Amino acid sequence: MDDNSQPPRRWDPLVKLTHWGIVAAVIGNALITEEGSGWHIWVGYGLAALLALRLLWGLIGPREARFSAFPPSPARAVAHLGEIGRGEVTRHTSHNPLGALMVYAIWGTLLVVIGSGIAMSGPPPANPSAVEGREGGEGEAREGGKEADDEAREEAAEQRQPVAAVAAPTQPRETDREERGEREEQGERQPVPVLPQTAAAPMAERGEAAEREGGEGGEEDEGLAEVHEVAVNLLYLLIALHLMGVVFETRRSGREIVGAMLPGGSHRA
């Protein structure tokens, strides 16, 4: 059964703009930019702006673009599956119930991807080309870490020099031996020299504190990176399912779903 009582679907220009802008941003960060680079961060912020615009449009846009036109409803999605099984075709002015669930799933996953990415990167860099990606920065990070270790060892060696000077005094003179012998004969006890404290201990304490802070920050970054990676992989899966659904619905109902979303394309779907 083909229900033609509903008017054809019409997507307004802003829905098309945000849709294809998000597509371009996802493809760009997946295939073109290097992960963690300045351009990757800027594209991510552009993606956030496009998604925010689409969500705002879902509140104030035309009727078919608003959330009220395609509310997430598992019950309606199950009923839609029944229609598919019976060979029935129902026209929808906006997304069909299954498509609505997919749209909200993709938007929710995008929010996780964007949120975790911003938490790891911070504000976008003023010069995107100056910030290298994770792979390009690993070699420099190792070199920088090696240089920092060398400097720390040199500084620690300089701080230990007074201790060595006290611990290893010059050869005592003959008069010193005679005076020491006289004091020993008189039963005097030679006081044990107290070595002066150096900055080595405070430096060690600061180093341990910095190491603890660095360890905590590293664990937090690793957790965010894992969340980001899982969300990105989930996003790819949802996109693949979305494309399969578009192909299936087009073959099943013969509706011009893709054409309705193309810039300047047919508005009928």
Task: Explain what this protein looks like in three dimensions.
It is a single chain. The chain is mostly helical. The chain has a domain at 2-123 and 227-261. 69% of the residues lie in helices and 1% in strands. It is built from eight helices and two strands; from the N terminus they run βαααβααααα. A two-stranded parallel ribbon has the order 1-2. α1 (13-32) runs antiparallel to α2 (38-60) and α2 (38-60) packs across α4. It is elongated and about 115 Å long. The two termini are 17 Å apart.
Please give a quick description of this structure.
The chain has 269 residues and is mainly alpha-helical.
Throw out a few tags for this protein.
single chain, mainly alpha, two-stranded parallel ribbon, 8 helices, 2 strands, elongated
Distance between the termini: 17 Å
Relative strand content: under 5%
Number of strands: 2
Largest sheet: 2 strands, parallel
Low-confidence stretches are 163-169
Mean of residue pLDDT? 78
Number of helices: 8
N-to-C series of helices and strands: EHHHEHHHHH
Give the helix proportion (percent range): 55-70%
Q: Enumerate the strands of the largest sheet in spatial order, edge to edge or round the barrel.
A: 1-2
- The value of Rg in angstroms is 34 Å
How does the helix and strand content classify structurally?
mainly alpha
* Overall geometric form: elongated
